[in-house]
Amino acid sequence: MKAFNSLILFLGLFLIFNIDVAAQETLKERSSEAAFQSFGKAIVSENAIPVQAMAEQYNLMKSGDTLNSKIMATVKEVCQAKGCWMTLNLEDGNEVMVKFKDYGFFMPKDIAGKEVIANGKAFVEEMSVDEQKHFAEDAGQTEDEIAKITKPKKTYSFEADGVLVRE
């Protein structure tokens, strides 16, 4: 009988411990997601590509190439007019111009320097002089800085359908 009681006690403690571990894991997952503010489509932080790996992917792409991706990077700049675009620092001297799918959501204007996770489509395109000037104006650059834009440039772009901003 003592062996049976010991077995019952052991099984009870085992179940309690496993339930407690599972609850802690769920709480940990929720708290890590709670550390982000969400914009656009609901996404999770898991499986985001570190910025260094994404920089390598962009370097391999040609104009017209696309890649479904989830990137984790630091915000360099945000549109100060509406928050309708942001740039991400690729940490290799390049940046990614991020726009939001169907103009469906905007970012807070004060998130420069914060870490974000953006889900969507990475692509390479050539940006016209007019478009570069428009974005420079949105960013608050001076007329002299804007006047220096005279040639189209190859840009790394990203159309995000969902973004998480680390709080």
Look at the structure and give the mean pLDDT. Answer: 84
Structural class: alpha+beta
**Share in β-strands:** 25-35%
> Strand count, sense and closure of the main sheet?
5 strands, mixed, barrel
CATH architecture of the largest domain: Beta Barrel
Number of domains: 2
CATH topology of the largest domain: OB fold (Dihydrolipoamide Acetyltransferase, E2P)
Shape: globular
Quick rundown:
The protein is of the alpha+beta class and 167 residues long. It has helices spanning 2-34, 51-60, 129-138, 143-147, and strands spanning 36-40, 49-50, 66-78, 85-89, 95-100, 115-127, 153-166.
Features:
alpha+beta, 167 residues, single chain, 4 helices, 2 domains, globular
Write the layout of secondary structure elements.
Blueprint: H1 2-34, E1 36-40, E2 49-50, H2 51-60, E3 66-78, E4 85-89, E5 95-100, E6 115-127, H3 129-138, H4 143-147, E7 153-166
Parallel strand pairs: 2-3, 5-7
Antiparallel strand pairs: 1-7, 3-4, 3-6, 4-5, 6-7
How does this model look, in words?
This protein is an alpha+beta fold. 35% of the residues lie in helices and 35% in strands. The chain contains four helices and seven strands, in the order αββαββββααβ. It has helices spanning 2-34, 51-60, 129-138, 143-147; strands spanning 36-40, 49-50, 66-78, 85-89, 95-100, 115-127, 153-166. It has a five-stranded mixed barrel.
